[in-house]
Amino acid sequence: MNQFFESLGQDWVDAAKRRGVAIAKPALDSQIALELLELARVAAHTQERRFAPLTSFLAGVAAERLRAAKPEIDDATLAEFILEVRQKLEREVPGL
After folding, report:
1. Is residue 8 part of a domain?
2. Is the distance from CB of 63 to CB of 82 less than 8 angstroms?
3. Residue at 3 is within a domain
4. Model-level pTM?
5. How many structural domains does the chain have?
6. How would you label 48-81 residue by residue, b for 16+ Cβ within 10 Å and e otherwise?
7. Fewer CB under 10 Å: which end of the chain, C or N?
8. Splitting the chain (96 residues) into consecutive groups of 10 residues, what average pLDDT does each group show?
């Protein structure tokens, strides 16, 4: 995606290694990144504004669980998965 996220991905690999675990370097697909940013934007307009970062985290957890259950899912499908929930949340927020 960009150098910041490339470096951050390596930081996660290094932190896991210090705990005795080897993980693949996490990467951020641009479509998924866009959906996560939009999800955070919508969450920031709810009564629980401070939950926006946690909303994105939870989306990531859910997306990886979906991928674990169905490994053939591609990044575009994961972006659509996040979009679906974001649009539901968006309909529930007055004035959006």
Report:
1. no
2. yes
3. no
4. 0.87
5. 1
6. eeeebeebbeebbeebeeebeeeeeeeeeebbeb
7. C
8. 91 98 95 96 90 95 97 97 96 83
